[in-house]
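User: Earlier you gave me the apo prediction for this protein. Now I'd like the version with magnesium ion bound, so I can compare the two side by side. Same sequence as before, with the ligand SMILES added.
Assistant: Got it. Here's the input I'm using:
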Amino acid sequence: MKRIALDMDEVLADVYAKLLIYFERDLGWQPKWEDYAGKKLYQLEGAQHLRKYLHARGFFGDLKVMANSQMVVQELQAHYEVFIVTAAQEFPNSLIDKYEWLEVHFPFIHWRNFVMCGDKSIIQADYMIDDHVRNLRNFQGTCLLYTASHNIHNTDFIRVNDWLEVRRFFQQELAKEGKTL
Ligand SMILES: [Mg+2]
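And here is the structure of the complex with magnesium ion:
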């Protein structure tokens, strides 16, 4: 089976939905997508401190699941080996949060397929889905850039805006081999 390396934050787990709650609480207003399009939320004026919340134990434990991701990942598993590849070491306290989050929301992915790493350039697979251009640049296989506010101007990779587009991409890949998702 071909392998898919799947990012967690901003691909499976909605980090920004939670950061926006902190933003509004701390700064007293709710930014719209247009306000942070082309950058990260914590690059807005006065919001630099938001990044420190990512280091707190528990932050990654209760993130919302991206719409349709569970359904599509399960469908993909019929044809592909799916690995979760997350640069968790950047936030050491996130390690157990992420493991438990995956067990709750993606119980159909075996823990052997959890790859919590530092630098994703060590990863070899056939496909990588990630919102960070830096991770895709070092990847040898087919890259899918999952849309996030900070990557909207990049045109170097195949772009997917949501999980239904991920599904459509793999439907097309499988169709080349006469298979259906
Ligand atoms: Mg990510």
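For your comparison, keep in mind: The first strand starts at residue 2 and ends at 6.
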